[in-house]
Sequence to fold (221 residues):
Amino acid sequence: MAIVGVSGSPIQGGNTDRIVRSLLEQSGHEHTFVNLSALNFSPCRACAHLCAKTNMCGQKDALWPYLGSILEADALVLGSPVHHGNITAWMFSFISRLWCFHHVKNLLEDKPVLLVVTALFQESKERGVQRFEDVMIHRSHKVRYLGAIFHATDIPPCYRCGVGNQCKVGGLWRMVGHDEEKLHNFRVTPDKFKRWENCARTVAEVERYAQVLAELPGARP
Fold:
């Protein structure tokens, strides 16, 4: 059995990447991992004349070599941070490229799919997961939905931007409760970059879904 894990995070090696990788490793199955931000690829260009008869995308860019593995995989683990209330542009573009599998016959039908969603705030869970489900699950691929793991990172981009303790627009301003003194005195230290491995709830969810992946049958019917 083979599982393909795909991360749409622009932070290579970040929480999203590590959750997806841990699921793959703990599953005990053969697996492949790819971070989309490391690839130079385009979204679907609607060139149906190139894929309708072959069920394979005609754009032979950096994503193209992975499409065969995705089609043959016994399960997929897809991970994305929430950007502007939605999955990242990398993940959306990736999903658009899967349309080549949907001509005449639906080649992804019944393929087990697990979603991983990360966001700055816990309040983003419902919307972030729903947007991912809407694009990948509730459209027309008819995959077998295994569920979703959500992890709140508490790591705003403000930690890296250089003007976080002056800005009253970003996530840090919200995190300090719109308190100007707390914002001004805030200092970015290594302990502020929280890891999912130190969150008991997320660790338990990863272990639970890794077991779900481990128990999947060795081949699709």
User: Anything to note?
Assistant: The chain has two domains: 2-155+194-214, 157-192.
